[in-house]
Amino acid sequence: MSNKLPENAIDRLFLSSDQDLHPFKFNQSVVDVFPDMINRSVPGYQTIVDGIGRISQRFLSAGSSVYDLGSSLGNVSLTIAKHNMGKSVCIYAIDNSIAMVERCRQHVGAYNYDALIDVQQGDITKLSLRPCDMVVINFTLQFIEPAQRQSLINKVFSALNPGGVLVVSEKISVEGQIMDELLIDLHHEFKRDNGYSDLEISQKRSALEKVMILDSFETHKKRLLAAGFSDISVWFQHFNFLSFCAVKS
Ligand code: GEK
Q: Where are the domains of the chain?
C-alpha cells in the first residue's frame, strides 16, 4: 500500500508569482507534498518526532491512551507506536482536514505495530477527550484561534491522568525585536538552503499570515500554568522552532 503514496512529491505550491494567494489550507494539494514541505520548512522536524517517541516511552505503560492532536499524516502516532512496542497502547490521531485523515489512514495502515491507531476527522477545539497518559500537539496549536487556546489546554489538563505529559511543538515569536528578526532570518536561510526561492518563502508567509498566529514561549508557559501544569520545560529548540513538555503532577 505504501508504494502508492506520493511520498517523494516536491513542494512547489508557492513557486509561481501569478497565483491568487488564498489563505493557507490543509487541502489535497498540501497533503500530496506534506512530507517534503514539513521536512524542508521545519528545522529539526525529524529530531522532534523521534524525541517525542522517546519521551512517550517514559510516560506510557501497558494499555495507555494517547492523543495526537492535529495528526496530519500520523508521524507522531507512528513514532509513539514504534517506541512502545509490546504495550498495546491506544493512540487517537485527530485532524480536521479530511484529505489529511484519508492519507493518514493509508500511511499508518502500512505499518505493523501493536498499538491501535484510531484516525478520526475532528476539530480538536470541540473534541471531548478520554482519560489519557499523554497528549501531543505537534505544530498545531499555532493554527488554533488564539481565543480558543486556553480552553484547549485546560481540556488537555483535565483529561491527563496524574503523572501524564503534554508535549507541544510550535514556531514561536520572540519578545525582543532583534532576536525575533534574527531567528526569522535564520529560518528563511534554512528554507533557502533547502531549495525554496525567496518568492516561495514570501508567498507562503503571506498565505500563512492570518491562519498561523504565533505566541512567545512566555505566553505558552503562562497558559500552561493557568491550566494547572507545574512542571514545564523546553526540551528542543532550533531557531524559532520549539518543543516543550508539561507534566501534570
Ligand atoms: C506532524 N502534527 O506531522 N482540529 C484538528 N486539526 C487541525 C485543526 C483543528 N481545529 N486546525 C488545524 N489542524 C503533525 C503536523 S500540521 C503543521 C501538524 C504544519 C490540523 C491541520 O489540518 C494540519 O494537518 C495540522 O493541524 C497542522 O507532526 O503543517 O505546519
A: 45-173+211-247
